[in-house]
Amino acid sequence: MITDLRDLNLERIAVINDDPDEAQSLGISIKTYGSSSVLFTSGFDNVDSFVNMIREKASGVLCDHRLSVRTDAKFSGAEAVAKCFGLKIPAILVSEFIDLDMYTTIRLFRRKVPVVIHRDNVTKQSIVEGFVNCLKEINNICPSYRKPRRAFVQIHRLTEDSGIKIVEAFVPQWNPLKAVRFPSSLLGDFESDDLKSDTLFIANVNIGARSADELFFDNFELAPEPDDDNGLA
After folding, report:
1. Gap between the Cα atoms of 123 and 129, Å rounded
2. What angle is formed at CA 124 by the lines to CA 36 and CA 86, rounded to 5 degrees?
3. What Cα–Cα distance (Å) separates residue 71 from each residue in 80, 160, 185?
4. Distance CA 159, CA 126 (A)
5. Which of the residues 15, 65, 98, 108 has the least number of beta carbons within 10 Å of its own beta carbon?
């Protein structure tokens, strides 16, 4: 039975936060969860170099999202966590701004951010379970709510949030009556200021998501025109 971080062989956790006091507090918590910690409160210049350094010094990561409040960080915590995932480093994103950032700067990388925990939900249980889920997904064991499937995405409109271009859309196979939002840059080559309402795409979407916060999107392509032969009419 897994009860603390020692059971996962996570001997040292990198705590990444631009607030030294907050980093220290989380580092103390990590110790009570069964691991040691190493704190990083600056040096957020290049995400690839930074994550490669982390890989040499820690076996897991607990990362704040907004790293540029007290530093001139060139990347967000979500991007750092996604890079860690690509290198098979279990990493959890923690933030008190999840409700504000989920549909913009977090969703941009949500496909490779398996676990997001609100700061006020950080407990031994949530962190241990979070790392368990990270390790499973790194080893290609995904819960149903994280499995991507090809799904229709119907555009509603383009808008803007905090200077980021946002798409409002519907995913009928997830919930046809609930609009969702994501950065327009996820559309890739299809990103355009002239994107029309009701444009229909097909994309990888985790349609088993338990809430809109868990949704991710990637690999967009235009849906074929409906006709009697392809079953879309």
Report:
1. 10
2. 65
3. 15, 25, 25
4. 34
5. 98
* Residue 51 placed within a domain: yes
Q: What is the pLDDT of residue 233?
A: 47
Task: Quote the domain boundaries for residue 203.
Answer: 146-222
What is the residue-averaged pLDDT of the chain? 95
C-alpha to C-alpha distances, 80 to 73, 92, 113, nearest whole angstrom: 11, 10, 9
Task: Report pLDDT digits (tens) over 191-224.
Answer: 999 999 999 999 999 999 999 999 999 999 999 9
> How many Cβ atoms are within 10 Å of 46's Cβ, its own excluded?
12
Structural domain ending residue among the three candidates 138, 167, 192:
138
Which residue, among 117, 158, 159, 153, has the nearest Cα to 26 in the 3D structure? 117
C-alpha 217, offset from chain centre: 11
Within a domain: residue 228?
no
Residue 233 falls inside a structural domain: no
* Token pair in block for residue 21: 């006091």
Chain segment 121-131, per-residue pLDDT in tens: 999 999 999 99
**pTM (two decimals):** 0.93
Residues 6+ apart with CB under 8 A from 56: none
Residue 228 pLDDT > 70: no
Structure tokens at 36: 């040691």
Could you tell me if 17 and 25 are in contact, meaning their C-beta atoms sit under 8 angstroms apart?
A: no
Q: How much of the chain is helix, strand and coil, in % rounded to 5? A: 35, 30, 35
